[in-house]
Amino acid sequence: APFMVNAYPYFAYRDNPKEVSLDYVLFGQSPGVKDPKGFTYNNMLDAQIDSVYSAMAALGHNDSIPVSVSETGWPSKGDPADIGVTPENAKNYNSRVIKHVTSNAGTPMRPNRVIDTYIFALFNENQKPGPTTERNFGLLQPDGSKVYDIDLSCGYCGAAPPPPAPLPMQWSRPANAGRQPGAIWCIAKPSADPSVLQESLDFSCGQGGADCGSIRQGGPCYSPNTVH
Predict the structure, then answer these.
(1) Which residue in the list 34, 88, 134, 146 is annotated as catalytic?
(2) What is the dotted CATH code of the domain comprising 3-140?
């Protein structure tokens, strides 16, 4: 399962507009920000996602768990003191997020990958307490009318997803393959990362549709129950 984060460049801009460029948070014509590792970020959402990847790597989860953005968005209306809160900015942010994530470009630290991202929110929440902005993140009004025009037809979805990374395995036919037409062995490379191997096994025995009964608990090949 992915590690899910709520990422809101809007709040970073709201809290520090003198230091955070509006173009940078709205996927505009920003000169970008270069981090100490040498990556250049042209928008804050990518930087926020990569900060999570960096923190996970520091804890030993180096690319073993994908990151998904469970919430991101921009309010279309706020209180008089709020800056940058307009239907135009909300439209620009959300439409550019859709275009960016459906291009499968990934982030500077994790390029060429799909990052599942969910726009918050579908409807304005007119009865929600708190600041006006909290009631106005929606694409639609509570009655179903549009807050602003935004293309949700998936017109940006023409880019094909990147090809899957090759599995860290090598394939060979068993010695008695002549008596078992089509049978193959799956042999893990000694240098393969155990966590990546486990992911490959989980996929093959699940979504991949392989019959893994022999290596499950109670099967003739269950022991030893290690990936190497």
Answers:
(1) 134
(2) 3.20.20.80
